[in-house]
Each structure stands twice: as structure tokens, then as C-alpha cells.
Design brief:
With 143 residues, this protein is mainly alpha-helical. Helix content is 73%, strand content 0%. The protein has five helices and no strands.
């Protein structure tokens, strides 16, 4: 009986050891910041900004705005990865703001609230402008 318990305990410990969580995969950025802007941020922000001038008419158009807002939020995350992060201060703050505002725009689009999407769009514009003023000027000066 005692041997059975010891074998059961040993089996349980071996099982738990083998079931330990695997190590997280290493993130491997592929696109540059400029490529992310052209491929994701600009087209997605344009779709969100457009709601202020032309409210989506149907579920399909609202879904497109939701997808664009989610893309903006995730782009904020992508801007904080690896060598894309220009610094650990303002760059991270602005990128996190893009995550938060993209999520807010998504929630507003999900609720089909054009006014709230437009408000989030205005705030997204301000974050983008602030970041561009700080970081695009540096890029121009170093050329």
C-alpha cells in the first residue's frame, strides 16, 4: 500500500514537471516603424477618422471600422516591441495611448456610436501628431 502511494506521488510529480508552462516564444519584429505606419496605422486611422464625416450605414461598414480600430490598438503594441521603441519614455507613453484609444474606438464602433468614434479619432489624431512632432523631426535632423 505504501509503495503504491509513493509510486502515485512520484507519477504525479513527474506529470506536473512535464506539464510546466512552455517558455514564451521570442518576438521577432519584421516591419520597420515606417512600414507599420504605411501598412496598418495610416489606413486604419483614416477609416476611424472618416466616421466623423460619413457615419457607417450598415453592420458591414461598422465591422470595417471595428477592425480598423483593433488594428490601431494592436499597432500601438507593435510599436513598443524591440528596436521599434525609440525610447522607454515618451515613445512608450504615446504607443500605449494608441493602444488605449484604438480600444476605445473599437468599443464605440461596436456600440455603433459615431460620435464616440469621432471623439476617439480626434484623440488618436492628437497622439499621432504629438509623436510625429517629437520623433519625425529627429529623423529629419539626422539626415
Amino acid at each position: 500500500m505504501r509503495t503504491t502511494r509513493l509510486l502515485s506521488l512520484a507519477s504525479l510529480l513527474l506529470f506536473l514537471a512535464s506539464a510546466a508552462p512552455a517558455q514564451q516564444p521570442t518576438l521577432k519584429p519584421v516591419a520597420t516603424v515606417k512600414q507599420l505606419m504605411k501598412a496598418i496605422v495610416i489606413p486604419s486611422s483614416d477609416a476611424v477618422f472618416q466616421v466623423a464625416a460619413k457615419e457607417p450605414k450598415n453592420d458591414e461598414e461598422w465591422a470595417a471600422v471595428q477592425n480598423s480600430a483593433l488594428a490601431l490598438a494592436e499597432a500601438g503594441n507593435l510599436l513598443m516591441i524591440g528596436s521599434r521603441a525609440k525610447d522607454r519614455g515618451e515613445w512608450m507613453k504615446e504607443s500605449q495611448a494608441l493602444v488605449d484609444l484604438g480600444a476605445a474606438a473599437f468599443k464605440a464602433a461596436e456600440a455603433k456610436d459615431a460620435e464616440a468614434v469621432a471623439k476617439a479619432g480626434d484623440e488618436i489624431y492628437n497622439v499621432c501628431e504629438s509623436c510625429h512632432n517629437k520623433y519625425m523631426e529627429k529623423a529629419k535632423e539626422t539626415k
